[in-house]
Amino acid sequence: MRADIQRLVVAVAVSVLVAIVAYANYSHQPAGGMSDFDQVWIAANALRHGADPYAALRATGWPFPLYYPLTAAVVVMPLAFVPIAWARVVFTASGAGLLAWTFGAIPRRNWTFLSGSYLEAFIFAQWSPIMTGSTTLPAFLAGVVFTAKPTIGLALGVAYFLPFSRRTFWAIVGGLTTLTISVILRPSWPGEFINAARHSPHIIAPVTLLPLGPLLLLALLRWRRPEARLIAGLALVPHTIVTYATVPLFLVPRTRNEIFLLVLLADVVYGVSHMFLAPSNLDPASMARTVRATGQVILALLYVPSLIMVLRRPNEVPSVET
To answer: Which domain holds residue 164?
Structure first.
């Protein structure tokens, strides 16, 4: 009980600190698609007023379509009732608090907050912290959150909600509930989402990146371990392979040396991606080239070291599964 109280205190403290910094960072930025969260907030706001959420984002001049399923807009719907600046703060602080609580099972993992992976996620109000932190939410709520980014949600679900149990059942119920609500609110959205997904060359599965991508499936040699299933799952599901998307990998390290190594490597990846691999133009084709180049660096410096950490462990369920 004492450990849980300390874990909660740390999570609340991290959440408050991040909220303060987030307000300073986001309060003067206009709405208009500056991050994944902004895009979903715009969609949720349109949905709240009975408008087309996919058209609402196009109207802002953002060069990309809405690549999210409408389930993401349902997840953030409560934040559509507050101004975008405050919505970003609540979203980012909630993700930080959840992440700190999840990492509290192995407290040294909180060094992740000094990594380039978390820094980029924070700057752009990205989903990866809240998705990663949701692995320790009550199962129904975790299932709800996972529907916002269903490919990453699937990888996290396979890692931390298998083998099948009562917890798995309620996570599935949470996901299906969110899906049902989204279809009731806008029955046509699956077709609109599929049409947008067809024009997303920057969303790829890491396993397709040669030569290192296929090697990640070696994690299945340790399939009993959730972190092994996580690496294999992330390798197989399509997503944007950039620095902020690597936050879930920080569920892999367990020792002090492992976490420090991954934090250091993530800082290197962040520096390389921003110094040498930034897209020259904000358009799908340029983004696709950048993601493939950044993806090669991420595989070499983050995925492969994480894979080696897992392969050094026995193929058995660990005593601490987060």
So the answer is: 2-311
